[in-house]
């Protein structure tokens, strides 16, 4: 398991901004960790691996061109969906 998966978003942002790690490394580390645990925790309805890696590659290209990334540029993101069903909740 990569130690990147235990770093905060602020730490990762700084590592990416200073080019100590690439956005692709960060996203791949997160995807690898998810592959290790998802069978046990079943937390995600959908994992968009290809889109995540494509976005990481685009963020890396932006960074390498010298352009600034936004505050979340290159960071993996998950979205929690909460659904309320009739008779539950």
Overall morphology: elongated
Biggest sheet statistics: none
Query: Kindly, what is the distance between the CA atoms of the first and last residues, rounded to a whole number of angstroms?
Result: 36 Å
* Estimated structural class: mainly alpha
State which percent range the strand residues make up: under 5%
Uncertain stretches:
none
What's the β-strand tally?
0
Radius of gyration: 15 Å
Q: Strand-and-helix sequence, N→C?
A: HHH
Number of helices: 3
Indicate the percent of residues in helices: 40-55%
User: Mean pLDDT, rounded to whole units?
Assistant: 91
Features:
49% helix; single chain; 89 residues; 3 helices; mainly alpha
Describe this structure in words.
By secondary structure, the chain is mainly alpha-helical. It has three helices and no strands. Helix 2 (23-41) runs antiparallel to helix 3 (49-64). It is elongated and about 55 Å long. The mean pLDDT is 91.
The gist of it:
With 89 residues, the chain is an all-alpha fold.
Mind sketching the topology for me?
Blueprint: H1 9-17, H2 23-41, H3 49-64
